[in-house]
Hints:
CATH architecture of chain A: 3-layer Sandwich
CATH class of chain A: Mainly Beta
Helix content of chain A: under 10%
CATH superfamily of chain B: 2,3-Dihydroxybiphenyl 1,2-Dioxygenase, domain 1
Radius of gyration of chain B: 21 Å
Shape of chain A: globular
CATH class of chain B: Alpha Beta
Number of domains of chain A: 1
Number of helices of chain B: 5
Largest interface: A-B, 21 and 27 residues
Largest sheet of chain B: 10 strands, mixed
Bound molecules: FE2/S2 (inorganic) cluster, fe (ii) ion
Structural class of chain B: alpha+beta
Helix content of chain B: 10-25%
Largest sheet of chain A: 4 strands, mixed
CATH topology of chain A: Rieske Iron-sulfur Protein
Distance between the termini of chain B: 67 Å
CATH superfamily of chain A: Rieske [2Fe-2S] iron-sulphur domain
Strand content of chain B: 25-35%
Strand order of the largest sheet of chain A: 1-9-10-2
Number of domains of chain B: 1
Oligomer: heterodimer
Radius of gyration of chain A: 14 Å
Strand order of the largest sheet of chain B: 17-10-11-12-9-13-16-15-14-18
Number of helices of chain A: 0
Amino acid sequence: MSRHWNPETPRPQNTLLCHIDEVKEGDAKGVGPVGGLKRKIILIKRNGVLHAWLDACPHYSTGTPMSWKADAYFNGDKSHLACHSHGALFDIETGECVLGPCLGQRLTPVEFTVSDGGEIFIASPAEEEKP
Amino acid sequence: MNIIGPDYLVFGVDDIAACSEYLTAFGLKPVDVTDKGGLFETLDGTGILIRHKADPSLPPPLPTSNMLRQQVYGVRAAEDLDAIEAELSSDRRVTRLSDGSIEVKDDHGFELKFQVTIRRELSMPAEKINAPGAPAQRKPNEIGVWEEMPALPRSLSHVVLFVPDIDIATGFYCDRLGFVITDILSGAGPFLRPKANDDHHTLFFIRTPDYMKGCEHLAFHMGGPTELMVAGTRFVKKGYQSFWGPGRHKFGSNWFWYFNSPLGCHFEYDADMDKHDDTWVARETPMGAESSQIVLFEMREKWAPSGGPPPGAKG
Ligand code: FES
Ligand SMILES: [Fe+2]
């Protein structure tokens, strides 16, 4: 999922999210909303791999924010991303809801690029990626 | 059967520290709380009791992932407990505890407890307002708001349950326990008040699939809409996540502001709810955005229009 931005190609949507060092290993961080998006973007670093999901629970079509506090996106044992509205649990790597009201639905992935300097940019408007 | 309303709601949680932090920041007072959990109470003594989900002293969990373990109802007197026991023991097991309270399951399997209410009588003014044509509620020189004004939950107001069968739920609470339907949002469900409480609702049902059975939200009465918005604003400033509101519902007329929580359901501040008696005739309207609220706002960061840019300045 993590791709490096190639300076040869134009940046599609060069909205800066944050620096990769601001996302600590094993943690989640909510950034934004940026670039006209209504919701924040959840950045998670697991085993050195960065994942990015729109902070929008698929239980309702509007997509509602999932944390209970700033950056508090995990369930108690940190095994899953959780929606703290009705307790839906999501696989951190695939975004699939594995328990709760939106069982089988997925979080919206956010395409991103990481520059050589470690800056994370949105690669495309995340909301267009909704199925 | 003089049921007043929920005294406590009991949760089996997976993160005691996070829940303790949350409940305290929400404005509840920890009472004998340890790393094993405890009670978080409002000004009148009603509130939320948390334990770790593996704590054997908790009633069994629902078959869903919901963390609600028990609803503890307060009644007026010991005779009311006898009446409830007599009514419910005809078709289910009713357990009498040593303190006289009784435990029983409702028809959907939700764990209930009935006890002589622990709520303390409050004597505090409601929010006072001034308006032309009406006598002033605030005396000359009595100010309405100030930065440190108190805005704490006064009482546990209501609980909202996801249930798979509305008829079964209303049948149990109305026919067996004497609750009254005040209004119905068709497509969602009915608002109920128990006999010994004139609040528009202490209980509301939302029809959902079986696998969602549980608590959707619970709410606390505030002293008025200003306290509600002050408490909610302070909560957001501390980093907590608004879900819906502030706004004002149509049925019940109560102001609302809902927040996400680490207890797997929403927590609501509410204020200025309608009161009803037995002469009230229930209204019914289809559930929808228009029918569920008269106004809805979303919090934004504070700003202030000042004098604006000097003449000729750009922007
Ligand atoms: S809004 Fe996320 S589980 Fe209901
Ligand atoms: Fe409510």
